[in-house]
Protein 1
Amino acid sequence: MHLANFVDKMSPKDQDEISAAFARAVYACNLPHSLFEHPLWKAAFSKIRPCFKPPNKNSVGGKLLTDEYDKIQAASKIKIDLANALSVGSDGWKNVRGEHLLNFVVCTPEPVFHSVVEPKTNREDHKYIAGEIKKVINDVGPMKTFLAVTDNAPVMVAAGHLIEEEFPHITHVGCCAHALDLLIEDIVNLGTVSNIAKMCRALVKAVKNVPVNLSHFQLKQEEHSARTGKRSVSLKLPSPTRFAGVVILFHSVIANKEALQQTVVIQDLAIDREIKDIALSEDKFWSKRVAWHSVLQPIARVLAYVESNYATLSDAVEAFYVISVDSLQAFKSSPITKYRRKFEDCFEYRKSFVLKKRALCREYS
C-alpha cells in the first residue's frame, strides 16, 4: 500500500489525552513547563505524529496542571472515603522559591496526598500547626482517624499534644523515617564517626575535584573491574540534609579502596600528604570505617523501606527490632565496641518517640 499521500489526523479528544499524558510526565519528573516549546521537541513530536501539537508552557502550567490536580484530589478522596481507619501526617518544606509550606498526607494505609498549606503571614507556632492538622482530620473524618504523625521538632510535638487533647482517641507519634534519619545523624555526631566522615569527604574531594586525579582514579577503577568482574561504584558525597547519605559515602569509599590507594601513590599527582595517610592507613581509617558502615547500613536499609509506599504502621515496630539486632551485632569483636552504650542510648531515644503507644494501633495497619 502506497502511503506517500497519507494525511495524519487526530481528534480533539486524542489531542487532549496525549497532552495530559505528557504534562503528567513533566510534573512527575519536575521538568520545566516550557520543555515542549524547544524546536527539537517539536521536531521529535512531528516525527511521531505530525498532527499532534505539543502543549505550550501556559497550558502545562495552567489548565493541564489544574486538571491533573483535580484528578489526583478526586482519586485521593475515593481512597480516603473507602478506608476504615486513617492516619494524618504533616511535614514542613520549602518550594523552589524558598517559601515555607505545610504538607499533609493521609495514610489509608496507602499514603495519598491531601493538601498543601502556605502559612504566609501566619506565625507557625504550635497552635497554628495544630489548627491546620485539625482541619485535615475534620475533613477526612475524625472518628476514623486514629493517628497524627509529625517530626520531632518542638513546635510539632506541642501541636501533637493539642491534637490529643481535642481528640482523645487520636495518638500523636513521631515519623519513623524522620527518626531513623536523625538516628544516623546521632551516630555520625559521635566523635570517631564524625572524624571518619570528614576524612572520607576529604579523600573523595581530593580525587573528584581535580580532573587529572579523577582521570587516574577512573583508570584504576577500570583495571580493578576488569580483573575482578565487579561493576565500578562511583565516589559519592552526601547531601547536607540527608544524613543517610553518609552511609552512601562510606560504601562508595570502601568499594573503591584499592583504586583510591593506587591513585594517591602516583608521584606525578598533587595530592596532600594528609590525604595519602588517610587512604593508606588501615588501622586509623579503613578498619573503623568498615565497622561503622556495618552499624549504619542496617539503619539505611530499613529507612529506604520505611520511606516507600509499601510500608505500613506496624512495620515501624519491626524496623527498630531489625536495627537492634543487626546494628548491635556489628559492635561485637570490632574496633568500635566501646561506643556500643552510646549507640544504645541514641537508639532508645529515637525509638521512644516513634513507638509511643504504636503497638495499640497495629491492628489497623
Protein 2
Amino acid sequence: MSTNCPERVPINFDGMTVAEAAALWAQHGWLVFPVRAADKMPLVKWRADAARLPRTPNGVFHLFKRMEAKGALMIGCAVPPGIVVCDFDHKPDKGWDAAKHLSAMVQTFYLAPGCTSVSCSPGGGFHAWFKLPDGLVSNNWDARTGGFPIPGTDGRGDGGYVNVPPSIRADGKAYRWLAPPQPIIGPAPDALIKFVTSRAKRLARADHTTIRIDGHTSTYWRVATQSMDRLSAQRMYDQNLVRAANAGEGGRNNQLFTSAVVVGRLVSSGFVSLEQAARDLDAAAARSGYAATDPRGVAPTIRSGIKKGQERGPFNIRDEP
C-alpha cells in the first residue's frame, strides 16, 4: 500500500463550525480549502497555489475564517496521489441511480460491506474512497466517457477534489458519512486497480480524445500535465469560445459544456480568471442562440463545465514559446 497519503478520514464533527471541521481534516493530513456553498466553486487556486496553502490545523482554521466574508463555505478536499474516489452520481433523468450503482460495485468488485469510507452527497450520490497500491496514481475520469464498468460513476484522482462532510450546501442539505461511518480508507479492489492501470497506459499514449455524445462530436483534453506556451493557451481558449458560439441547434448544450471543461482547466492554470471565463462563455452561448432558446440552462452548464475542468487539473503553461 502507498504510505505517502492519508489513510484515515475524520468522522466526528459534533458541534463544530466549518472552520473547525476543516482544521480537523488538516489534522488528519488532508489538503483542504474553502469552497463557496452558493455555486460550489473553490475560493483559492488550490492546485497552482498548493505549496503556499496552509497545511496545519491552525493555518487552515484561519484561512476558512478569513473566507467567511465571501459567504457560506463548504470544505473541498484535494485527492492526493495514491487515493481514488469513485463518485456515484444520482441523476434519475439519465437513469443513474446512485444507490443501485454503489450496490452494483459492491457485488461486481466483491467488496465487503463497510470495507472503506463512503460519504453521501446532498443530491443522493456517494463518494467511495480507496487506497491504491504503492506507485499507482489515478487520473480523473468522466461518467459519460471514462469507460468505468458501473454507469454514472465519475473518478476523482490526482488533480481532482471532492466536497467532504460536514459541508452544507446553500440549500441547507449536508454531506455526511454513510452509516456506520468507516474512518479507515480501504484498499482498492483488484478490478478497480486494473481499470486505473489500463487508463494510465492508454492516456500515456494520447493527450486528447474525440468522443460522441448524443450524436455530436466533441474533443476532451485529458492529461493534466499537457505543456504549452501562452500563445497556444490563448489559441485553445479562443478556439473553444468559437466552437461554443458556432454550435448548431441540438448540439449547443454539449459544446458549451465541452468548451467550459477546457476553459476550466485554463482557469486552474491561472491563465484566465473565473469571472472572465464565465463572461466569455456566456457571450458565446448568446451568439450561438442557446441563451435565447434555453436561458435557464446556460449558467448551470457553464458552471458544471468549468468545475469539471478544474477537477481535471491545470495545463502546464510556459511563459516562453
